[in-house]
Amino acid sequence: MIAALPLPYLIAATLLAGAAVVFASIRATRLADIIADRTRMGEALIGGLILGGATSIAGVIVSVDAASSGDASYAFSNAVGGIAAQTLFLAIADLLHKRANLEHAAAEPANLFQTVMLIILLSLPLAAMAGPDIAYVGIHPVSLLLFLAYLVGVRIAAEVRERPMWQAVDTDETREDAPEDPEEARRSARKPALIFAGLVVIMAAGGWVIGQSGQAVISRYGLASSLVGALGTAVITSLPELVTTLVAVRRGALQLAVGGIIGGNTFDTLFLVGADIAYRDGSIYHAVEGNDLYWLATGLLMTGVLLAGLIVRQRRGPGRIGVESVLMMAIYGLALSVEIFA
């Protein structure tokens, strides 16, 4: 139905869906901060598991919908392109936090571990693409391994949060993860959790509309699936991560901001699991194009730079942002230029 709309209505539907996803994500960020305080799970863990997964739901719908339609490149590039874009958003958020480098101020063992997990999870599709073309019931074994690795990573991240084996050095710029209102931890998390679930439904519906619009543009105008996926729908469905990150930074919830991006990226690797299941012509890893691999490598490189920044914890770099933020902007800008002009 959406695919048959004239171009002006198609654009309007995409913009409305994107706006709905963004506004729902703003409200979700505030609720995630409240849930983190009331459950005592901490901002980094709630940001990585709950907020990161919720704001990624629109992208999941896009990738699964594209894969079920047989467009492997669109499904894959939407997933990995979103990871690169969302990592860039941390660099943008660093510009907003004027006191010090964001990665320095938001020191948290759980965020550091989840970044390591993200590198591991991004390496698995790369191994699948380089390995033999195998699939059982149309699903590559790496998809199962990817899902299991994510579950194990979630469990270990919780343990790192509860029983950290090291502590970051506190400085004047380090932001403590503590409730602003001491009474908040005594209140029930049920109501904000239910509202949060309703917002997830809105974001999922918006993702479906955006995915349908992207497929219509590809088929109608003959654009490359990797271009529309990595730079079109991936960026649009990643806008909630940008908004939630900026909102969290302005609220002073720095661990939530960093954890939301890293956790969202970690969750985004599961797009590939869902896409591989939905794609019925064999393994999705061997049906993608070179440009899709390019964006996977870009996301992996940017994540490595982010990990280095979290470890080094530079207080101030050029213009009060960390050198890792400058590098992440440069890497994404170069990848963007190559995609468009090469």
UniProtKB/TrEMBL annotation:
Domain of life: Bacteria
Keywords: Membrane, Transmembrane, Transmembrane helix
Signal sequence residues: none
UniProt subcellular location: Membrane
Gene3D superfamilies to which the protein is assigned, alphabetical: NCX, central ion-binding region (1.20.1420.30)
Parts of the chain that traverse the membrane: 6-24, 44-64, 76-97, 109-128, 134-158, 193-211, 223-249, 256-273, 293-312, 321-341
Any Pfam family the entry gives: Na_Ca_ex
Membrane topology qualifier: Multi-pass membrane protein
Domain annotation Sodium/calcium exchanger membrane region: ranges: 11-151, 193-338
GO terms (BP aspect): intracellular calcium ion homeostasis
InterPro entries: K/Na/Ca-exchanger (IPR004481), NaCa_Exmemb (IPR004837), NCX_ion-bd_dom_sf (IPR044880)
GO MF term (any one): calcium, potassium:sodium antiporter activity
A GO cellular component annotation in the UniProt record: plasma membrane
Protein name from the UniProt record: Cation:H+ antiporter
Organism: Roseovarius nanhaiticus
